[in-house]
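Thought: the user wants the 3D structure for the chain below. I'll pass the sequence to the structure tool as-is, report back what it returns, then summarize two notable features.
Action: structure_tool
Action Input:
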Amino acid sequence: MKGSLFTEMSASELLERYASGERNFAGIRVWGDKLDGAILSNANFSGAVLRGSMIGTDFTRSYLIGAEFIQVNLRNAILQRSRLYRATLAQSILSGADLTLASFVYAELDNTVMENTNLYKASLIGASGVDVESWLEQGCIFCHTTLPDGSKRNDGCQRLGIDVY
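Observation:
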């Protein structure tokens, strides 16, 4: 559509372009396609709108600044060292995801499912929808995790074999 801020793209086109070496996908829109198990690390998805299933997708070290993942299944996804500043993950499933060293600064995490999610050294500064008690009940791992108010939580360090001193 002329004048659109987004570039419409199918999952297969995204994967083909990534495989050919492209890493800048800022502002793309992928609707309802499956990206289960895809490796999309070290890429720029800033401002992207991603919908559908992304079970086990690897976004390690990716820029997801302002990205929208509303109602997306990111179960077992890998978001290590990813930047999700002001990203929206409302009503998404992040169960079993590895969010080690990920930055969710000012992200929207309202009604997000976080069963057994690893938040080792993740930053949630200013994030909305963070429900520590509910996430702990779901088995979420907090270890050197920075909460929205800047405080740290270490519930779960022992599950990672890390001593807290």
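Final Answer: Structure generated. The beta strands are 7-8, 28-34, 49-53, 145-146, 152-153. The CA atoms of residues 82 and 134 lie 24 Å apart.
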